[in-house]
Amino acid sequence: MQGQDIALLLKLAIQNEPNLPSKELAASLFISPSEVSKALKRCVDSGLLYISGSEKRVNRTALLEFLGHGLKYVFPPAKGSLVRGVPTAAAAEPLKSRLLDDGEPPTVWTYAEGKVRGISITPLYKGAPKAALLDSRFYGVLALSDAIRSGRTRERNLAIELLEKEIHG
Prior knowledge:
Number of strands: 5
Shape: globular
Order of helices and strands: HHHEEHHEEEHHH
Number of helices: 8
Helix content: 40-55%
Structural class: alpha+beta
Largest sheet: 3 strands, mixed
Distance between the termini: 25 Å
């Protein structure tokens, strides 16, 4: 599995559009169509996705289990320095409004066009900041995923709870 595979699964899980063409997925995630094809195969092989014809169905229960118990171990974020970027984890919605500001610099994805200075962490995949800024719901689930990857216990637990609501609708 790769980080873009998780992003693809999250995108499909919140779309509620089982016949979303791979070409549209590639464009919305800022990855190539061939990478989408490889990611879909890896997701099917792992049991997190079922494909029948053009229909793609996410195994939501298995995805949530993996996010809650394995994501922080398989995709630990590398923390960096103070940079300009896009807020993520507890510094972004839907967590930001639910937690008190601890006075620490926010967690961000490095992004030249970002408007916030904070401590950088590596996103799940390279295109995450760009894709997130074009789709607020996708941005929310990526930020929640980053809270699971990098947050403290309270942040992780709240992120898992909010992800369950988003993914199960």
